[in-house]
Amino acid sequence: MQVAQAGDYEGEKVAEFVQEMTRDYGFASEQLVDLLAQAERKQGILDAISRPAERVKPWKEYRPIFLTESRIAQGVDFWRENETALARAEAEFGVPAEVVVAIIGVETFYGRNTGGHRVIDALATLGFDYPPRQPFFRQQLKEFLLLAREEQVDPLTLTGSYAGAMGLPQFMPSSFRAYAVDFDEDGHIDIWKNPVDAIGSAANYFKQHGWSAGEPVVARARVAGDRHAEGLTEGLEPILTAAQLRELGWTMDTEIPDDTQVTAFRLDGAEGDEYWVGLPNFYVITRYNRSVMYAMAVHQLAGQLAAARGDS
């Protein structure tokens, strides 16, 4: 464990930030200076975020990381333990219970891996000592201090990932303030230790990003002709309609209205290329994490959880 280095964030280094928080948000200057002086610069965090990206795994290697027997079995346990909250979230936000469970399962293995860094250390380190993304993380530090004040919790006690993502659903502070809800109505929002609040918050995130209750997520597809590659989407945003995709040689295995905005992609599966069409709800999952494979892992884990629960 790293020895505390009090004073990493004081003096001129944080003066402008303190001035802004005092002027714009009403923080007491002396208290904020004292708080930030207790934040620690963590070289391990800088090393982690600066590390060159690993080779992007193909789908046939990525999928088995998340669709394991233990993740499915423990997801069914989590579902059973929180059945009332999940059913209420589904009724209120329109997001299926299995999707909420899958998100929490992929993010933190149902709360087992939520990160052990103090959030204030992570965000101060990245907000003051990581120039490539300093504006983003400094904004997250602002949001974090605001949420700590709003929730009346000690900001020195809250923990998360090395990037400052927090709790069972791994919300960044800005997402917490925008989407987290007091789902058990006890007067506090606790996504760290309270699965009820975490469940309601994740479901609210999906609803606010456009989840459509009862609508499908993806469709398997077959391709033909010499133009099908033109349908493959470079980004995540849906830019083609289902009708335009069909004109390029794509055939979906489920009926999709012509005017539906879709994302088309190919995955390197265990048995060869897989062609998929992402529907609007698929795009919503990518808003949680901007990765096609992440969204597919969540979707397929959700399906496995529903199937396993049906068999239990």
TrEMBL record:
NCBIfam families: MltB (TIGR02282). CDD domains: Slt35-like. The active site is at residue 107. GO terms for biological process: peptidoglycan catabolic process. This is Lytic murein transglycosylase B. InterPro entries: Lysozyme-like_dom_sf, Lytic_transglycosylase_MltB, MltB-like, SLT_2. GO terms for molecular function: peptidoglycan lytic transglycosylase activity. It holds the Pfam family SLT_2. Residues 13-302 form the Transglycosylase SLT domain.
